[in-house]
Design a protein that fits this description.
Number of helices: 2
Strand order of the largest sheet: 1-5-4-3-2
Radius of gyration: 19 Å
CATH architecture: 2-Layer Sandwich
Strand content: 15-25%
Shape: globular
Largest sheet: 5 strands, mixed
Structural class: alpha+beta
CATH superfamily: RelE-like
């Protein structure tokens, strides 16, 4: 069976740009190499998703998130094992943070629910 499905939360691209820009501004910075480190880290997380212990439970979904350090970054992810042997597992990347961040889990959330508004037509204007 193939490896797990890799899912990215919407904030991950922003995290990557922000973290690599920070590295690029440093005299020692090599953002291209760090980007490769992060890509290799994602492969590692998909290959061995249970190597890192679950550390934080997200309140709405009950998902447990984990983190994996890769070079100067931390990949925050959730692992969802398949309930059916014929279906693949899912690794959901929630954030990619630079290690200088005090709490890598800060701001890690589930996808916000779409809110809808309904118009009450039963009330007539007088």
């Amino acid at each position: 069976m193939p490896g797990p499905i890799l899912h990215w939360m919407p904030r991950v691209r922003k995290d990557l740009k922000k973290g690599l820009a920070y590295v690029g501004r440093q005299p020692w910075g090599k953002p291209d190499k760090r980007e490769l480190d992060i890509a290799n880290g994602m492969v590692k997380v998909c290959t061995y998703p249970e190597d890192n212990r679950a550390e934080l439970r997200l309140p709405e979904s009950g998902l447990w998130v984990r983190h994996c350090r890769v070079s100067q970054f931390v990949i925050v992810y959730a692992y969802l094992p398949s309930r059916e042997p014929s279906l693949p597992d899912v690794v959901s990347i929630h954030a990619v943070r630079h290690v200088r961040v005090a709490n890598v889990f800060d701001g890690v959330r589930e996808r916000s629910r779409t809110t809808t508004q309904t118009l009450d037509l039963s009330q007539e204007k007088s």
